[in-house]
Amino acid sequence: MAQGRTDGAVIGKKYRAAIAAYRRQLADGSLRLNFEQEADAYFRRCALGVWARGSGVTENHVAAYNAICSGANRPAQVLYLELCAGVASAPDFAPPGFFAQLAAADRGTGRNRADQFCELCSLLLLLFATAEDSVSAAVTDYIQHCINTLRKASGKTPPAARRTEEQEGRGSAAAQTEAQAQPEEEKEPEPPQPTLEELMAELDSLYGLEKVKKDVRSLVNLVKIRKLREEQGLPTPAMSLHLVFMGNPGTGKTTVARLLAGIYRAIGVLPKGQLVEVDRSGLVAGYVGQTALQTQKVIQSALGGVLFIDEAYALASQPGTNDFGQEAIDTILKAMEDHRKELVVIVAGYSNLMMKFIHSNPGLESRFNKYLYFDDYEGKELDQIFRGICQKNGYTIQPELSEKLPAFFDQLYENRDANFGNARDVRNLFEKLVAIQSDRVAQLENPSREDLMAITLADFEQAEEEEA
Fold first, then answer.
1. Are 32 and 101 within one domain?
2. In 3-state terms, what secondary structure has residue 203?
3. Distance CA 455, CA 445 (A)
4. What average pLDDT does this structure show over 412-419?
5. pTM for the full model?
6. Residue 24 contacts by C-beta under 8 Å, 6 or more apart in sequence?
7. Which range of residues forms the domain containing residue 263?
8. Together in a domain, 247 and 353
9. Residues 357 and 399 occupy one common structural domain
């Protein structure tokens, strides 16, 4: 497959963006920590496996290998001859150590973090392949083998993948017969879908967002009346259900998108009502043609529900650059036209950047004409969010701290800057306080139930000192 070679530094930049995007989806602290600790070393081994099937090591491979680092991790410092030796002795592909934990955590929860890791791995393997001038059939076959191996390890190997492995000689005729003789696994019954009333009640229970709630209710009423008019044979003017969410991080955009997906299903607009969340790294690949394929895969997973594109403005190409973001936009616009009755797209991001993004393309302007504005949370709302997080997680706020919090959150709101994270900052504060409280309680000889639950003013003051 022809392509232009990707510079090693660019590969590193794209790698870090993909890792950061996946890490944001891991709310579980243990999963996130294990992923952060193992990811760079694991994907460096993956890169060796890809390059072992290529046309030879160059200085661009060295630059790419040394750029595979994320977060505060130290970059590699491999030299050319060292990398040649590493490629020559590249280990066989195997799932990372934390993958079994991911798959186990997904079972029975309806989550798909293992599947999302498979998508991440596919994206990064293709990215590593672009260190060369062209991607050979041997490399693409190897990448497909790697993804099939991951899916098999997660217990979700597709039939096509099983056939491919057997055709490649990794399964004997006896193994094929045994596989055919095994009965299909019984599927767990799907949990009942929430009703419209339950979803609207959950929307109403969110802190703040009064204008957003009003806009959502108005939109729901508009759609319901439209359907009633259709049933009565009355004219129904053209209507777009695609939306633009504008606001700062941590203002509830993803939560509202999830509720809207369920609401659209409950009133019969969408058949499934799932939410598929993605950003640029999940849509844009490393060479011409692959972005359209990657974007199509995401769209297929979203059919019947809502495709939520966070930081969508990052797809817009900068003047004078040769970027594949426009390829993703064109693919999404076509899908919106081809799947009018089974796909709703919501794009989200900072208000000023989203306006520039929408106005950058006539196709975007014509399909996105409804805007929901998510204001920053005020001090009293931040206070409510913090208390709600504590209650949900079984922590109590001691009276001295409880008295201090309203003024603290008022000040946090008044002094906010462009990096203000809203509810995200509140969550970070809670997690820091839990860590400090754990260190304190661990020193007690026989902590009581109350000790295990209490967050004190001293805990809070220590958190403030560490932030200073």
1. yes
2. helix
3. 18
4. 88
5. 0.59
6. none
7. 196-374
8. yes
9. no
